Amino acid sequence: MIFNISHFIDIHYGFINKIYDFSEFTNINMSDFNSKEEIKAYFIKFVTSVLDVVKEYKPAQSNPLIKKACEYVLGNIEQDITLLSIAEYLNISKNYFCSLFKQETGYNFLEYVTKIKMEWAKMLLKEGNYKTYEVSEMLGYREASYFSRLFRKYTNQSPAEYRKSFQNQK
Q1: Alpha-carbon torsion angle 82, 109, 7, 166, nearest 10
Q2: Are 108 and 115 in contact (CB under 8 A)?
Q3: What pLDDT is stored for residue 22 in this prediction?
């Protein structure tokens, strides 16, 4: 059943795998559970986590413009996404989009983009396969130093410190 849910998530919410690590939920051995209650609690924790991520990163499903903007960001996270580029994509003024996005989601648009990018950066750094400048390029940042400053502001750690904290756990 967890596999079926994971498959559904991949099809309908593929972006989640870029910003959230579900491996703790998908790499399980059912024989590790001692009762139906443990399985139920585990399943509820899994579904709750999925719903929390979807709600947080794909807000304002009721407004088609905001929904389209969020989907664009989530699908093009490797691009340099600006207020101007998204306004042009939606064919509306950037001032109108900025105020609409804030009104509908409670987020400043650029803060939302940065949050998505930083969550993906955390996933990439956690894997340990990429250098800081490679992650920076993968996220559409032209300057690794700028990416590093944003990352530190978001996580209170440099990208190298963050990556190292997961290498020590392996």
Answers
A1: 90
A2: no
A3: 61
Q: Are 51 and 5 in contact (CB under 8 A)?
A: no
Cα 53 → chain centroid: 8
pLDDT of residue 151: 96
Helices (H), 13-77: 16-19, 23-26, 36-57, 64-75
Q: How far is CA 99 from CA 103, 107, 129, in A?
A: 6, 10, 39
Residues of the chain whose pLDDT is less than 70?
1-27, 50-61, 168-170
Both structure tokens of 56 = 């947080």
DSSP string computed for 80-147: ---HHHHHHHHTS-HHHHHHHHHHHHSS-HHHHHHHHHHHHHHHHHHHT-S-HHHHHHHTT-S-HHHH
Inter-residue contact 3 to 10 (CB < 8 Å): no
The tokens of 112 are what? 């939302």
Residue 168: exposure state from Cβ atoms within 10 A (0-12, 13-18, ≥19): exposed
